[in-house]
Specification:
The protein has 3 domains: 246 residues, Glutamine Phosphoribosylpyrophosphate, subunit 1, domain 1 (4-Layer Sandwich); 208 residues, Glucose-6-phosphate isomerase like protein, domain 1 (Rossmann fold, 3-Layer(aba) Sandwich); 144 residues, Rossmann fold (3-Layer(aba) Sandwich). 35% of the residues lie in helices and 22% in strands. The chain is built from 18 helices and 27 strands. Strands 3-2-4-1-10-9-11-15 form an 8-stranded antiparallel beta sheet. Strands 5-6-7-8-12-13-14 form a 7-stranded antiparallel beta sheet. Helix 16 links the parallel strand 23 and strand 24. It is globular and about 85 Å long. The N terminus is likely disordered. The structure holds fructose -6-phosphate.
């Protein structure tokens, strides 16, 4: 079965203010969730008709469309879309409307049984106008409304609520929905299952969105919806019901984020600015998490959990996706080799369907900068559930989140959170959040090493003092490599394939270097552990394939140099990310990094690789900050 996947941002508003500016403002904040197409629907205040406006491509196209209309309405829904199937065309953009034009729906998620539902509707004569899974929903709701009217329910929001509740009981998959019905022109119904949805309580209006930044401009008072809840919003109030149709009463909470003014400064792209933010990322992290012990006067890692939390842990499993997984792999190296704790890293998407057997005293760490990645959240949920079924205390849910968004879905799953404090990252390619995730793992490794006694005090002191040196080191690296990597990019922007090699603690950096290059430049790139080259990938090499090798003095330096020699013998052009050190003369081009301890080398070696990827993509004239087919937050599996 072909699966139509949509992963998107939704926003909905009802109240006394003009809806369109609020919807557009909300969508601007959600564009990181997808930028293939966008759309809004409002109920015209005078005619009470639903008016839809959609545009292919970035949100600016919708804004341009809307600026040429004079629709007025105080209730509406909006959507920004990311699709892997069902082309990014106007017909597939949301909102989707039923054939009477009276019901409009926006959705974030996947309706897994849409084909079966569609077949059923088509048999009844319903004509479809898009290739999406979502379109079944307005048709089903309209059918349900007709049936309910036969039962003589009032034409008000409660009727819509009942109709939506009946329809979602037939939906399989995950979704966040917002629905308008011309029959109840002040009522909005919203519902969620395994996709985030947050209600904001404004002054004279309610707003509901996939994520808090879309709400923060209007209000800081929010009510996050729990899984499988449905709500009716009117200008007069909110009714929330759980999946058993029990009315839910709970107090709103205040949103802890401030509206950040995010300026590109003088940088051409956010990504370059964010690469340049990294010395400050390091400073912020060090200031927050390295504090002087009042007794000894020495710097200590100060994480917000007590010693007991660390003491009971015997093993660690880490779940993450993409760049966060690469950070987790460096983390795993540190936790095993520095702190002596058996640690495994899993793709969250694999873990959720084939987890390892549950062992006692295991800490599960979810790493996600956005805090919303569907697979990571599902893996963490599964782990919480698995453990809650065990009666013995040693299986109790030991969950830790490493995230840049403490108020996100992952932040609401556990009270053990390391806030990576990287600030807002706009570029879709993660750079400073990766750097801050790495730092967070260094903090954990130090904490565990101290508590488990797996390293001498001196080793721990040395690592702390290396971390303290980072901000000026990273600053110097940026100065040194920005121009030279732009020059290198000029020579290599047209290559078809690039191989990245690393070993030990820098193997994940080879993976991250390759991921950065392919996602923003669309050049095929692969990262390998350098020792694996000869077991297959070496067949790819010839003079057209540059090989970028990370060689930092330490345990495996000589091995990496030998592996680089093997590549050179196959005519590959060799680029080294290495200090000026005996052995590195074999490189055809050296991206020189300072000589540091091997432990902190990933925090150094990643910098020139980020810059090189950036300059190659910029040289190719690509949309560096919003690469094709990607989204900043991947909220479907
Ligand atoms: C790559 C990138 C993605 C994310 C991945 C997980 O630059 O950003 O690979 O790392 O989608 O995202 P988070 O960290 O939000 O879970």
């Amino acid at each position: 079965m072909k699966k139509i996947v949509s992963m998107c941002g939704i926003v909905a508003v009802t109240g006394y203010k003009k809806a369109i500016p609020l919807l557009i403002d909300g969508l601007k904040k959600l564009e990181y969730r997808g930028y293939d197409s966008a759309g809004i629907a409002v109920i015209n205040s005078e005619t009470k008709e639903i008016i839809c406006n959609k545009a292919e491509g970035k949100l600016k196209n919708l804004i341009c469309n809307v600026s040429h209309t004079n629709i007025e309405g105080t209730i509406g829904i909006g959507h920004t879309r990311w699709a892997t199937h069902g082309k990014p065309e106007v017909k597939n953009a949301h909102p989707h409307v039923d054939n009477s034009g009276k019901v409009a729906v926006v959705q974030n998620g996947i309706i897994e049984n849409y084909q079966e539902l569609k077949n059923r509707l088509e048999k009844d004569g319903v004509v479809f106008h898009s290739d999406t899974d979502t379109e079944v929903i307005p048709h089903l709701i309209q059918k349900e409304l007709i049936a309910l009217n036969k039962l003589k329910l009032d034409n008000n929001g409660s009727t819509l609520l009942v109709a939506v509740r009946n329809v979602i009981s037939d939906l399989e998959g995950s979704y966040a929905l917002a629905i308008l019905w011309a029959g109840a022109p002040e009522s909005l119904v919203v519902a969620r299952k395994q996709a985030p949805l947050i209600i904001g309580i404004g002054e004279g209006e309610f707003i509901c969105a996939s994520d808090t930044p879309a709400i923060a401009n209007l209000t800081k008072i929010i009510l996050p919806m729990e899984d499988e809840e449905i709500a009716l919003l009117t200008p007069l109030g909110i009714e929330i019901y759980d999946s058993n149709n029990e009315r839910q009463y709970r107090n709103p909470i205040s949103l802890q984020i401030s509206e950040q003014v995010i300026d590109k400064m003088n940088f051409k792209h956010y990504m370059l600015k964010e690469i340049y933010d990294q010395p400050d990322t390091a400073k912020n992290w060090l200031e927050k998490y390295l504090v002087k012990d009042s007794n000894t006067g020495k710097l200590e890692v100060n994480y917000p959990f007590d010693t007991k939390f660390f003491e009971s842990i015997e093993r660690i499993e880490i779940v993450a996706c993409g760049t966060s997984k690469n950070a987790a792999m460096v983390g795993s190296y540190l936790l095993q080799q520095f702190s002596g704790i058996p640690t495994n890293v899993f793709y969250a998407s694999e873990f959720r369907y084939s987890p390892p057997p549950l062992l006692p005293n295991t800490l599960t760490i979810g790493v996600t900068q956005s805090g919303e990645t569907a697979d990571t959240i599902a893996a963490i949920n599964m782990e919480i559930k698995r453990r809650s079924l065990m009666s013995e205390k040693r299986y109790k849910p030991n969950i830790l989140a490493i995230t840049n968004r403490v108020e996100s879905s992952i932040g609401r799953k556990t009270s053990n959170i390391i806030d990576i404090c990287a600030g807002t990252e706009i570029g879709v390619a993660a750079t400073k959040t990766f750097f801050a995730q790495l730092l967070s793992f260094y903090g954990l490794a130090i904490k565990f090493a101290q508590i488990k006694g797996s390293q001498s005090n001196q080793n721990i002191r040395e690592l702390i003092s290396d971390l303290v040196q980072l901000p000026p080191l990273v600053e110097e690296l940026l100065e040194k490599h920005n121009k030279s990597s732009a020059k290198l990019a000029h020579d290599f922007f047209n290559v078809k394939d690039v191989i990245f090699l690393g070993r030990g603690i820098n193997y994940p950096i080879a993976l991250e270097g390759a991921l950065k290059l392919k996602e923003i430049s669309y050049i095929h790139a692969a990262g390998y552990p350098a020792g694996e080259m000869k077991h297959g990938p070496i067949a790819l090499l010839d003079k057209k394939v540059p090989v970028i090798s990370i060689a930092t003095p330490g345990e495996v330096f000589d091995k990496v140099i030998s592996n680089a020699q093997e590549a050179k013998a196959r005519d590959a052009y060799l680029i080294g990310v290495a200090p000026d050190y005996s052995g590195t003369e074999i490189f055809d081009y050296l991206m020189t990094i300072p000589l540091t301890s091997e432990w902190i080398s990933p925090l150094i070696s990643i910098i020139p690789l980020q810059l090189l990827s950036y300059h190659i993509a910029a040289h190719r004239g690509l949309d560096v900050d919003q690469p094709r087919n990607l989204a900043k937050s991947v909220t479907v599996e």
